[in-house]
Specification:
The structure is a single chain. The chain is mainly alpha-helical. Helices cover 73% and strands 8% of the residues. It has two domains: 232 residues, no CATH class; 33 residues, no CATH class. The protein starts with a helix and ends with a helix. This is CWH43-like N-terminal domain-containing protein.
C-alpha cells in the first residue's frame, strides 16, 4: 500500500512538473534585449579602440616597421594598414573586425526594414514612393558591399597581397562615398520641402558635414598617395595616413547618424512565444508590429 501511494505521489509530481513546463512554454518570455543605439555604440567603440591600441603599441614598440615604405623617406604618421598589418596587432585587429561585422550587418538589415515598413509606406505619391524605394534598395546593397570590403581589407593585408588589398580598398572607398551620396539623395526625396523638425535638421547637417569631410580627405588621400608613390616626398605618406584616418572616422560618424539620430529608440528583442523563439524590434513604450505578431493575431 505504501508503495502504491508513493508511486501515485511521484506520478502527480511529474504531472505537475510537466504542466508547469507546458504553461511556461506557452508564455511570452523575453530572453534577450539590447538597445539598437547600444549596438551602434559597439560598432563605433570596437574599431576606434582597436585603432588606438594598434597605433600606440606599434609606435612604441615597432616604430621602424610601421614607418617602412618603398621610398624609405621620413614619415611620422603610419597608415591604418601599417599599424594593423604587423604582428601581434594584426590578430587583435582581425578579432575586433570579426566582432564588429555582425552588429553592422544587423543594423544594415534593420535600417532597410525600418525604411520599407515605417518610412516609405507614409509616402502618398506613387512616383515619389518608387524613387524612394529604389534609392533605399541601393543604399542597402552599397552598405553590404562596404561591409564586405571592410572585411576584405582587414583579412587581406597589404603585406600579404598588396595588389588585392589595394583593389579592395578602392572598392571600399567608392562604395563608402556612393553610400553617403545616395543616402543624402534619399533624404532629399523623403523630405522634398526640407527638414521639418530639429531631429531631421541635425541628421542632415551631420550627414552633409561627414560627407564633405570624406570628399575632402579622399582628395587629399589621392594627392598625397601620388606624391609618395611617384615622387617620394618626405612626409607625403604621413599626410596620406592622416587623410586615411579622417576618412575612417567620417565613415563611422556618417553611419552612426542613422542609428543615433534617424532611428527612434528601438530595442532588439529575442522572445520565446508558445515555445518558438522570435526576434523583434521594439520601440520604447511602443511595440513595433512585426509579421510574427500579425500571424499570431
Amino acid at each position: 500500500m505504501d508503495t502504491d501511494k508513493s508511486t501515485k505521489s511521484d506520478e502527480l509530481t511529474r504531472n505537475d512538473d510537466r504542466g508547469n513546463r507546458e504553461s511556461q512554454a506557452n508564455e511570452n518570455i523575453e530572453l534577450f534585449r539590447l538597445s539598437l543605439r547600444s549596438l551602434s555604440n559597439i560598432t563605433l567603440i570596437l574599431p576606434l579602440s582597436g585603432l588606438f591600441i594598434c597605433f600606440v603599441t606599434g609606435y612604441i614598440f615597432q616604430a621602424e616597421e610601421i614607418h617602412e615604405t618603398h621610398c624609405r623617406v621620413y614619415n611620422i604618421i603610419p597608415s591604418i594598414s601599417s599599424i594593423t598589418g604587423i604582428r601581434p596587432q594584426i590578430y587583435l585587429w582581425r578579432s575586433i573586425i570579426a566582432l564588429h561585422l555582425t552588429p553592422r550587418l544587423v543594423i544594415a538589415y534593420v535600417h532597410r526594414n525600418y525604411l520599407t515598413r515605417h518610412v516609405l509606406i507614409k509616402i502618398q505619391g506613387q512616383s515619389q514612393y518608387a524613387q524612394a524605394a529604389r534609392l533605399a534598395s541601393i543604399v542597402h546593397y552599397l552598405n553590404l558591399i562596404e561591409i564586405a570590403s571592410l572585411a576584405g581589407v582587414t583579412y587581406v593585408s597589404n603585406k600579404e597581397n598588396y595588389p588585392i588589398h589595394e583593389k579592395i580598398f578602392v572598392t571600399f572607398m567608392v562604395t563608402s562615398l556612393t553610400y553617403m551620396l545616395v543616402s543624402l539623395r534619399l533624404l532629399g526625396v523623403l523630405q522634398p520641402n526640407g527638414p521639418t523638425n530639429d531631429q531631421e535638421r541635425r541628421s542632415l547637417r551631420y550627414k552633409r558635414s561627414f560627407f564633405a569631410l570624406s570628399i575632402a580627405s579622399t582628395i587629399g588621400l589621392i594627392v598625397f598617395f601620388l606624391k609618395h608613390r611617384l615622387l617620394c616626398h618626405d612626409l607625403a605618406f604621413s599626410w596620406f595616413a592622416f587623410c586615411e584616418y579622417v576618412v575612417a572616422i567620417s565613415n563611422m560618424g556618417f553611419h552612426c547618424t542613422t542609428t543615433l539620430i534617424d532611428f527612434p529608440p528601438l530595442d532588439l528583442v529575442v522572445k520565446s512565444v508558445n515555445g518558438h523563439v522570435l526576434v523583434e524590434n521594439e520601440q520604447h513604450n511602443n511595440v513595433t508590429t512585426t509579421e510574427n505578431e500579425k500571424k499570431n493575431d
